[in-house]
User: Fold this.
Amino acid sequence: MVITRWPRKACTIIRSSGDRSARVRILLASAASIRMPGTGPDLARVGGKYSDAWHVEHMRDPRSVVPASIMPGYPFLDQTLLDTSNISRRMKTLQTIGVPYTEEMIANADKDVVAQISPDTKEAKALLARYPKAQVRKFDGQAAGENVPPTELDAVIAYLQMLGTLVDFTKFDASGPNLR
Ligand code: HEM
Assistant:
């Protein structure tokens, strides 16, 4: 897990990187590194453990909710729009390495990324038809609305709130067949 050694370095890269999408990729990778040896807790099942509002505060200023935390703050995330310009091409690439995205999912990617933060719209209904377990709401605490673009904070919190929620561990039989 090479990524695990990056968090502190990632903070430096994140701060100095002018490339926004690189920032969000590193952020998600560092968060996804699950275990930050000696620096942070295991995030593998953090999905649903806290409210979106807690994550908004925690990412902005961790010590505002966990006074003893050594985690750096990411106050720029809710002010930065998510770069979704090549999301369908990324999904196409992931499809080639076995991620089961359908052609329909790839064709609707640009719409779906906005639909995920636009609850109660017909686009959100179409998104849920494609991704029944998707969480749909404005995650970053800002007002939802027609064609409001997602922020980087929406992406990070949407990701955190999914971690560990797709597997029903009460039913999971570790001795059973490998389901992959
Ligand atoms: C985008 C990057 C990051 C995300 C999304 C993130 C997310 C989180 C989350 C969700 C928690 C609460 C976990 C729980 O209570 O179960 C947490 C805690 C923590 N994280 Fe991070 N983290 C990030 C980067 C870092 C980095 C770079 C460090 C260290 C250098 C760090 C250190 C910690 C520590 C010490 C805690 C426990 C104290 C606290 O709750 O604040 N985190 N992090």
Remarks:
- DSSP finds eight helices and no strands in the chain.
- Residues 52-162 form a domain with the Cytochrome Bc1 Complex; Chain D, domain 2 fold (CATH 1.10.760.10).
